[in-house]
Specification:
It contains 7 helices and 4 strands; from the N terminus they run ααααββαββαα. The longest helix is centred in the N-terminal third of the chain and has 44 residues, at 28-71. With 218 residues, it is of the alpha+beta class. The protein has a 4-stranded antiparallel β-sheet with strand order 1-2-4-3. The radius of gyration is 50 Å and the shape is elongated. 50% of the residues lie in helices and 18% in strands. It has helices at 18-24, 28-71, 74-96, 101-110, 141-152, 183-186, 188-197; strands spanning 115-124, 130-138, 157-167, 173-181. The chain has a domain at 101-197: Alpha-Beta Plaits (2-Layer Sandwich), CATH 3.30.70.
Length: 218
């Protein structure tokens, strides 16, 4: 009976298969090139898809705008434009409108009891300042001096000048005032704003503190 020897030790030295090792080796530069190429393709596709999305959104917006324009009544738009122009014109006129009402109220508050005004002439100067000439009558020269002092201390009246003094047969003193008023003082807009923000001031003739001036009854 023949003897068989069983062994797991290879009889020949193990030599790696050069073909298999070469087959599984990948050049890193080639791999990187393929990665960049794939990313470039994906990026290009994403940009193209985003471009298509933008185009679709723009076309959708244009369609909506067109539908809105078609739904607007041209006559209504024309009327609204005309109304807007009228409102702007009215606002401009209101902002530049001059009224003597603030000055009359000022006279009512600042005129002494012994003084009254009998005439008023005015002229608007190119600078926007209103030139005034007032004719008045007072009980005596002391009342005229007190009235001049009141007007001279108030900035609303510019350089009031009292002149043309004369005595009447009743013993009263007639006089003339030449003065000017700033445009802002006479703006109708300012009068409305002051009326809304200021408390009501009782009207009537006034006298300086500590001075008694008889009421002028003529």
């Amino acid at each position: 009976m023949a003897d068989f020897k069983t062994t797991f030790i290879p009889q020949k030295p193990i030599i790696p298969d050069q073909r298999m090792a070469h087959r599984h080796t990948i050049d890193p530069f080639t791999f990187a090139a393929w990665v960049f190429f794939a990313l470039a393709i994906l990026g290009t596709g994403a940009i193209y898809g985003y471009k298509l999305l933008l185009i679709e959104n723009i076309e959708s917006r244009q369609t909506e705008i067109k539908e809105i324009k078609e739904s607007i009544n041209p006559t209504l738009v024309k009327d609204l434009k005309r109304t807007d122009a009228l409102l702007k014109t009215a606002e401009q006129l209101l902002n530049n409108h001059i009224t003597l009402a603030p000055f009359f109220k000022y006279l009512e508050e600042k005129t002494l009891q012994g003084v009254r005004f009998t005439s008023l002439d005015y002229q608007m100067l190119p600078s926007g300042i209103l030139s005034l000439r007032l004719g008045g009558e007072a009980l005596d020269y002391a009342a005229v001096a007190l009235q001049s002092d009141i007007f001279g201390k108030d900035r609303k009246i510019i350089d009031p000048i009292f002149s043309d003094f004369s005595l009447t047969q009743r013993g009263t003193v007639q006089f003339t005032i030449n003065t000017q008023l700033d445009k802002d003082f006479l703006l109708y807009r300012n009068m409305i704003e002051q009326a809304d923000s200021s408390p009501e001031v009782p009207s009537g003739s006034v006298s300086p503190k500590g001075v008694t001036v008889p009421k002028l009854n003529i």
